[in-house]
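Reproducibility note. Readers wishing to regenerate the assembly model reported in the main text can use the exact inputs given here. Chain order matters: entities are listed in the order in which they were concatenated for prediction.
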Amino acid sequence: MLDINLIRQNPDYVAKSLAKKGYEVDFADFLTKEAKKREIMGEVEKLKATRNANSALVPQYKKEGKDVAELIAATKAIGEEIAAKDKAIAELDKELTDFMLSLPNMPDDDLLPGEKENNKVIRTFGEKPKFDFKPKSHIELCEELGLIDYERGAKLAGNGSWIYRGMGARLEWALINYFIDEHLADGYEFVLLPHMLNYECGLGAGQFPKFSDDVYWIDNKSETSKFLLPTAETALVNMYRGEVLKESDLPKKFAGYTPCYRREAGSYRSEERGMIRGHQFNKVEMVQYTKPADSDKAFEELVGKAERLVQKLGLHYQVSKLAAGDCSASMCRTYDIEIWIPSMGIYKEVSSASNARDYQARRNNTRYRNEETKKLEYVHTLNASGLATSRLFPALLEQCQNADGSITIPEALRKYMGGIERIEKPTK
RNA sequence: GGAAGAAUGGCUGAGCGGUCGAAAGCGGCGGUCUUGAAAACCGUUGAUGUGAGAGCAUCCUGGGGUUCGAAUCCCUAUUCUUCCGCCA
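Running the prediction on these inputs yields the following structure tokens for the assembly.
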């Protein structure tokens, strides 16, 4: 949620900023209604003051033996007027709140406007591997090495679902363990979260109401039903919803592992065979709560951490600074870490690091007490994948494949795989 | 799944229709004392909106209702506790 006072004070600035995300908005109607609401509130407060005063007179009159019937009748009339105005306020307020909730976050000033085409690669690590043989795609490798069972996965759960088998399951699990150990070493608290969340989580993270059809609902969608989380971020940024944190508790740093469940309806499935885009994938997610002044530093830390995870595996990737329109609705800035997938000839996102600043904290009311000013302030929330396996896994297979069809396991992963150095074709 | 009880400020906890934004204690902050600290004692200590300010309004889990007036009564949702049942 944006700061309503900023909209009141400088609607043009906000509109211009949102336009960089391709979001056209006119605040005129909103501001009129907002002013109207204030006006009615002023009236109603005066009426309430009168009612309160009258009500206080009732016991006094009774003590003095005066008749209170007239006073009560008059006050009742005021009460009816209050009720009518309160109703008008509630209606306006609902409208205003819905509007506020629908607004995306403002992109940072240094971002380019527009969509993907304006993303900028800001650095790369490693080089595209050169093969002196015809490299295979991860789909071929997975099938030949028996790592992923696409057919039976589809049999169990339909298109976009697969089964990790044997060494494939071990490699997947090794990646997750590797990520978690790295985060623990950096002082992040490891958390395992519920996968079924209530509506408020989606609202607080900024995914709802707009993207409520992108998730799986356990029962029919409603505000009392639960949905399967599309990313651990949805849970992590809601942990302190409605709470006031101590300044000394900040920053809070979390690493949570969950599968991520996404409908991916109308997606690029046909172009993205294999495990590039599925309805369920594993991800370790990092989230930080910081003081506003510290969030830029935290952002760099998160990007650096995600990069290091890929670097230690020795895989080639690039970092893109996203244009305003490619940042998700809740975010002020996002850097993507994109890994090279040889068979596709493109880079695919394995991590998305974002700074939401106070947008999510305003939505879910997460604040801290500023020790200096003694005032309550909104925290900043940031998140970064660390990492998603479903893109990393195929990239690893393809980048680390050998002429004989085997895969060399990166050094950093071996201790999580019982020391295995290579995945070979099964003999049987 | 059934039954009963509970939810109050940073925390513990009193209040059960009018002077209650809410006793008391703890904690926090300021002070006295002390070389310093502790203890003791004194004072102070919620948030939001609005207003230049005095003030006014709102907030006792969320929502709705009764009433001139609700922390207090009623309905409802959520959560917690206890008991019973079922079960990995």
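We highlight two features of this model. The first strand of chain A starts at residue 120 and ends at 125. Chain A has a mean pLDDT of 91.
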